[in-house]
């Protein structure tokens, strides 16, 4: 791999840089994950990609290199398809409800694998909320597999699941900018493409078709939505439109329309302790589950083949007590 040529190709600025083909992108990201680039060159690559923007071919090559690096898990036998939840943004303004989504899915019978960052000085992470709920990160893939097999939420920090990717993510605090790893982390899965249902959030609705194309080309089922502060749970006050995508249909399919703004009970503060207290009250039936999250779980039931449509999924949730 001629790294000097690669930097020259991608580093010519937004209007003159050239995209890498998929095999070259694969080789490049493989070298990055294996810590084979000089730090100066690595910084140049990351900044160049940030300015240029990653092409679809580049993202496919990067993703292939990452998936080969990730420890794999097996879907539990005689259980619904596992749901994979990335959590890399955390909460800045309101309580982080990603743990609530995971626990609602667990309560419905899904195996649930959550992966995310362990620290962000500017936001409340899912790890912090899970800790307040008494759920600690799995220390190894084997422990995560055991939790899934027992029907419990398995949460792993990216530091424990894939240290190489964690290193890429941590460069944000040195460079002051996010990099390709932040996009890749949200697409990562410990399962074979068709063996897990991924929930994926985008920052703007116009990105839905682009992300849908990625999952379609990967032959992977996914539930797509405009995320809440970058997290994948449906905003409880302004429920987003929910879309499905799979390997058979290239265009995203609208499952539920955007919900009208509603006044709902929310945690009194964004703190991990208060958010965990509120989540516990919801799970105990003391506070109603916000309708956008009910719709999100109902969509997962439908996409996993456990019900025919969203309405049937909602009826099943009502029978479960929420």
TrEMBL record:
Cellular component terms (Gene Ontology): cytosol
GO molecular function, one term: anthranilate phosphoribosyltransferase activity
InterPro entries listed in its UniProt record: Anthranilate_Pribosyl_Tfrase (IPR005940), Glycosyl_Trfase_fam3_N_dom (IPR017459), Glycosyl_Trfase_fam3_N_dom_sf (IPR036320), Nuc_phospho_transferase (IPR035902)
A Gene Ontology BP annotation from the UniProt entry: L-tryptophan biosynthetic process
Glycosyl transferase family 3 N-terminal domain span: 8-69
Residues spanning the signal sequence: none
UniProt keyword terms in alphabetical order: Glycosyltransferase, Transferase
Coiled-coil intervals, chain numbering: none
Gene3D superfamilies: Nucleoside phosphorylase/phosphoribosyltransferase catalytic domain, Transferase, Pyrimidine Nucleoside Phosphorylase, Chain C
Top EC category: transferase
EC number per UniProt: 2.4.-.-, 2.4.2.18
Name of the protein in its database record: Putative anthranilate phosphoribosyltransferase
Organism: Tatumella ptyseos ATCC 33301
Top-level taxonomy: Bacteria, Pseudomonadati, Pseudomonadota, Gammaproteobacteria, Enterobacterales
């Amino acid at each position: 791999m001629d790294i000097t040529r690669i930097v020259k190709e991608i580093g010519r600025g937004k209007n003159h840089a050239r995209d890498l083909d998929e095999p070259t992108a694969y080789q490049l990201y493989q070298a990055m994950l294996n810590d084979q680039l000089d730090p100066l060159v690595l910084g140049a690559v990351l900044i160049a990609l940030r300015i240029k923007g990653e092409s679809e071919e580049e993202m496919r090559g990067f993703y292939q290199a990452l998936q080969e690096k990730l420890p794999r898990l097996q879907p539990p036998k005689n259980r619904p398809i596992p749901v994979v939840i990335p959590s890399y943004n955390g909460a800045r303004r309101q309580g982080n409800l990603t743990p609530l989504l995971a626990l609602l899915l667990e309560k419905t019978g899904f195996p649930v694998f959550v992966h995310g960052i362990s620290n962000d000085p500017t936001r409340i992470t899912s790890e912090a909320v899970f800790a307040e709920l008494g759920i600690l990160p799995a220390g190894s893939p084997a422990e995560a597999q055991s939790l899934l097999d027992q029907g419990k939420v398995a949460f792993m920090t990216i530091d424990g699941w894939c240290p190489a990717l964690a290193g890429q993510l941590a460069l944000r605090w040195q460079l002051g900018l996010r990099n390709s790893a932040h996009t890749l982390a949200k697409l990562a899965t410990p399962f074979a493409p068709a063996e897990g249902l991924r929930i994926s959030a985008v920052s703007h609705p116009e990105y839905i078709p682009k992300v849908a194309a990625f999952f379609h080309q990967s032959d992977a089922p996914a539930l797509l939505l405009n995320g809440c502060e970058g997290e994948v749970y449906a905003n409880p006050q302004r429920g987003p439109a929910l879309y499905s995508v799979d390997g058979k249909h290239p265009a995203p399919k609208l499952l539920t329309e955007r919900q009208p703004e509603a006044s709902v009970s929310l945690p009194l503060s964004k703190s991990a302790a208060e958010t965990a207290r509120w989540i516990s009250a919801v799970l105990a039936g003391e506070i109603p589950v916000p309708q956008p999250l009910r719709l999100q779980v109902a969509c997962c039931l439908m996409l996993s083949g456990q019900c025919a449509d969203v309405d049937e999924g909602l009826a099943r949730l009502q029978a479960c007590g929420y």
